[in-house]
Amino acid sequence: MNPFKVVSRSFSLRLLAAVMLTVVLGASITGVFFFTYTNQSLGESYTQRFANLSIYKLAVIRNSLYIYALFAVAIFVAVVLFSIYYSHKVTGPLYRIRMFAKEMERGNFGIGIRFREGDAIHAIAETANSFSQRYGEIYSRLNELVDAMEKDAAVLKRAIEKGDSKGGDSARDRIASGVTELNEILSGLKL
User: Interhelix angle for 46-105 vs 9-38, to 10°?
Assistant: First the structure.
């Protein structure tokens, strides 16, 4: 999958197919209605046909305008409804991504994004979920390191206050290795 393609091709094709099907179906139904409504006999003889033709002509024009206007409105409404339906397949996930980002901002890395079947941007959810998991692990490890270093700092402080230089050596070494690990973790972060 192309990493820069947010909306899947199948989503775009389904939207296009729905709109085209609506227009073709509307035009076909309009044609059937028009044929059925206007399929009338003009008369038995040529004279009757010719006399009725002018009357029939006006009726056909008037009625065809009614039929075409009715179905044009129906097609327009159907296209608008399809557009609303498919736009929700994009805006719903965007809303969930926004809520996900707010939770991440609060430091809640244990959450994930779940999209409904048929939503347009599943690739973003997968990326965001892996991002959340990775940074959640890093955040947890950083907290563990800081907590351990605070405990070791307290041990080192007590040793210094007692004047015991040997007692603080192991705490100092653990703090130094913690600082090294912190530097490695922080240098590997990419934002």
Answer: 160
